[in-house]
UniProtKB/TrEMBL annotation:
Pfam families: DUF1501 (PF07394). Residues 1-26 form the signal peptide. This is DUF1501 domain-containing protein. The keyword Signal applies. It comes from Massilia eburnea. InterPro entries: DUF1501.
Amino acid sequence: MQRRQFLNAFAASAGLLLPLGPHAWAATMAPGSSAPTSRKLIVVMLRGAVDGMNVVAPVADAEYARLRPNIALAKPGADDGALDLDGYFGLHPALAPLMPLWQQKKLAFVHASGSPDASRSHFDAQDYMESATPGVKSTQDGWMNRLLGVLPGESTPTRALSIGPVMPRILSGALPATNLANGAAGTRATPLDRPQIAKAFDALYTGNERFGKVYVDGRQAHEEVMAAANSGMMSEMQAADNGAPLPNGFPDDAARLATLMRNKPNIQLAFIALGGWDTHANQGAGSGQLANRLQPLGTGLATLAQRLGPLFDDTVIVVMSEFGRTARENGNRGTDHGHGNAMWVLGGKVQGGRVAGEWKGLADGQLNEGRDLPVTTDFRRVLAHIAERHLRLPDSALVRAFPGLPGGAPLNLLA
């Protein structure tokens, strides 16, 4: 095996993204202040295109029941009915664990949001959401990696963390990030945790001029994660989806992530992807296939907020999906690939308890191509708003993180 191949294999086994290009380590400090911020950002990606119209359902709109005679949520108060949000929109009943956050005004939704690109391809649309350059396939890095380059303070390997089977597109780029497997395997000991093996590898690579930094950073990231995992509450917890797992295990992963972030303050950005949202058939209404996916998602998000404890006040959690689904149900009692969707924003300082964005209704003349929600709020505006108000980034940094950022009316999701 070539030495370069070995280092890549080592990085993968350690769960570390370590780019080996000629400029991989050229930029480790952000411009301006060198003091890192304590504010956190967690992104949850629902791969497969979740049906935002049955997550945040316009139950008071007569067109909603007409377009979805078999899968529309019943109105609040009925069996398996929606949970009333504001008299017009209702939350899917499987997401009941999130209602306390809504009532505390720590949860908001941005409806009819998404990518301006018209693609209905899962692969392309996910790529655009992760690169934040809709319609441009040549972008080399993800927007969360670009955030690492503009945040104040040194970008260490554990500053950005992903939980999943592979390092995601959203964290790819010049700066290092750490990837953990889902479940307890993500914090399980490896052969390099054996002292004799670690000593041998240290002697071989630590002083190597070309590969030493890759090895040392990989070891550092693994040791930091293991140390955080084995303290505190962690001892109690052990195609369209693009490799993302179903959300069934999300509550455990959410609890694990919260503990890691509490025990390792350096972790500032985190990402996790969940699959299973491509509901072309037998989607269900208040119960059924979609409900079975939403229940562990809602429980996991509530667990994440609760386990973060006081840290939740300095954290924003964003839930997004590559596109929405058709306004009309199809002949298989499901929904097909659509356009506009609903983004979720949770956090201690979120100005929640409301459905934001420009909602045009479901009349035929208001639908995109006569079939689905239009995108009235570009997803990049939501992300840039969070980066500006929550992460305190200046305009110059926002332009670097989100090139081609469109304008629009203020969102005011955060103070």
